[in-house]
Structures are given as structure tokens and as C-alpha cells.
Amino acid sequence: MGGILVTGGAGFIGSHLCERLAGEGREVICLDVFDSFYSKKIKLRNIDSLKDAPNFHLYEGDIRDPAVLEDLFGHHRVEAVVHLAARAGVRPSLEMPRLYTDVNLTGTATLLEHARNFKVSRFLFGSSSSVYGNSDRIPLVETERVDEPVSPYAATKRAGELLTYTYHHLYGMNVSCLRFFTVYGPRQRPEMAIHKFTRLIDQGEAVPLFGDGSSARDYTYVDDIVAGIVAALERARGYQIYNLGRSEVVSLKELIAHIESALGKKANLVFQSEQPGDVRQTCADLTRSRQGLGYEPKIGIQEGIGRFVQWYRTQLTS
Ligand SMILES: NC(=O)c1ccc[n+]([C@@H]2O[C@H](COP(=O)([O-])OP(=O)(O)OC[C@H]3O[C@@H](n4cnc5c(N)ncnc54)[C@H](O)[C@@H]3O)[C@@H](O)[C@H]2O)c1
Q1: Which fold has domain 3-183+221-245+285-298?
Q2: How many angstroms is it from 265 CA to the middle of ligand 1?
């Protein structure tokens, strides 16, 4: 059995995945450049529990750097790649479209080329519900046409799905594109809504709410996402696209109410106009991922927010 390369493995989702795989005794190779999107200190803490594990190998480097990839693939027999390294986040992608395209697209192309040369048989691509754009056909189904992304970030994710298809077509690589629906839980990126709202409410600061609070998301607990990734690792055959969500719609107002109740504090809301690039609503249809992956999300929003707030409190004291 070869190793599993997790790109972006020190990030929010990646670190949970590395922990799960290493805990199951798999050889895990984590490649992360510790980009400046948020602090390196946070990412090092994410993988702190793994640093001494004999089956965990950390490479600090860039997916766009062929020398780094040569070195890594030369030292480890990589059986599967879970590609999570990216510039994430919708709003900053409007400010930095070239950077997003470079990391998310050139980076993916560089990685795919090495995966092909080193005969990797399975490649999982961390895609996003943002590829659905402003579709109002809720719940969102994988068969829907997705050629109207409304942010550069979304466009790079869709482009990544297409590029991985090409590698499947040309070289027979088994590829699963996993469309994550707003992921949350311990270690969530500091700029993401749940983390940001929790911090602001806890500190008694104003909470900016974009739109009238009716926009809605399908929030997915990180353990459920990791379970979906692990299932895809085991079952990836051919080329597939799967939604990984919770299939439960939560409005912004409801989300705030859950956080308030978990913190025992009231939010000071400041309503602001809607942000360009944001989508109005997401909700995953899970028919295909249930059938193909046996995927079944377990954690609902109330329990998930409770767990997140519990983790948030431990961070204040550590
Ligand atoms: N969190 C979500 O709600 C969500 C939703 C949909 C899709 N995704 C996708 O899932 C993946 C992981 O997201 P996350 O929330 O854990 O983000 P994250 O920012 O916490 O993790 C991404 C990691 O990739 C690393 N990285 C960035 N550029 C790199 C490069 N050029 N080379 C090597 N490493 C690099 C970063 O340092 C970071 O540790 C991303 O591809 C993201 O687009 C996330």
C-alpha cells in the first residue's frame, strides 16, 4: 500500500483528513506552503499532534514548484492524491484573480502532471459548491450545467474539475471531484463566517451582515466532509463528481441565533449591502454521493455549532 499525498494538509480540512488517515495507520505525506492567507502559526498548530508520528511526513513547499514535487514523488510511493491546496475564499478572489488562477489552476496542472508521471492511480480534487453559481434549482444536483461561475474562485474550481477530467480521459487516472458545501468545525479558517461571527459576538463587537439575513447556506461539519473524502479514496473509479454537504438550509439569521445560543451572548448586527461574488443559497442534493460513496452526514447545525464554540473557547485559553 502506497502513501496518500494531501496537498494543503496543514489547512483546516486538510489537517482533519491527515489526522484521520494517519490514525488509521496510513502513510500520509502532507504538502503545504503555509501561504499568507492566514497565519502559519495556526496551521502548524493544526498538525501539531501529527508532527512526531512516524507515518506522517511534512513537506513545506508549493504545488506550483516542480522541484518540490520531483523530490516528494521521488521519495514516496504515492498511491493517491487528495488535492486540497488552494487559495480559498470567494471575496478575496475578486481582488486577486491572477493569484487565484495561478495557485488553483497552474498549481493543479503542475500537480496533475507529476501525478501522471509517477503513475498515481487516484486523484481527488477539492472542489466547491460555488461552481453552481446563482442557480435557483435547489437542491443542487451534480448533473446540472455549471458554466456560470460568479467569482474568480468559483471559476478556478470549475476549471480544476475540467482539467482533472482531461487527465482521466487521456491517462485513465481515477478522479473524484468533491464539491464541498460550506465546511465548518474546529480549526475553521479565521475569516469564514462562523468563526468570524463567533469571535465578534464573543468580543461584543459589531457583526456585519451582508444582505437582509435571508441568504442561506448548507453548512457541513468537517468530520462529515472527511468521511466523504475517505469514502471517495476507497471507491474512486473512473471520473465522478460528488456533492459533499449536509442538505440542510440555514439562513444567516438562523446561523447567528445558533451562535448566540451556544455562546450565551447577543449579537450586535449591522446590516450591509450584499457582496458581489456571493451566491444567495446553497443546498446539496446527496442522492449521488449516498449511492456512490455511502455518504451520510451525521452532524446537524446545532450540534456542530456547539462543538465549534467549545473548540473556540479552548483556543482562548491555550
Ligand atoms: N472550507 C470550506 O468551506 C470549503 C468549501 C469548498 C471548497 N473548499 C476547498 O477545500 C480546500 C481546503 O479548504 P480549507 O478551508 O481547508 O482552506 P485552508 O486555507 O485552511 O487550506 C488550504 C491549505 O493550502 C495551502 N496552500 C495554499 N496554496 C498552496 C500552494 N501553492 N502550495 C501548497 N500549499 C498551498 C495553505 O497554506 C493552506 O494550509 C480548498 O481547496 C478549498 O477551496 C473549502
Answers
A1: Rossmann fold (3.40.50)
A2: 31
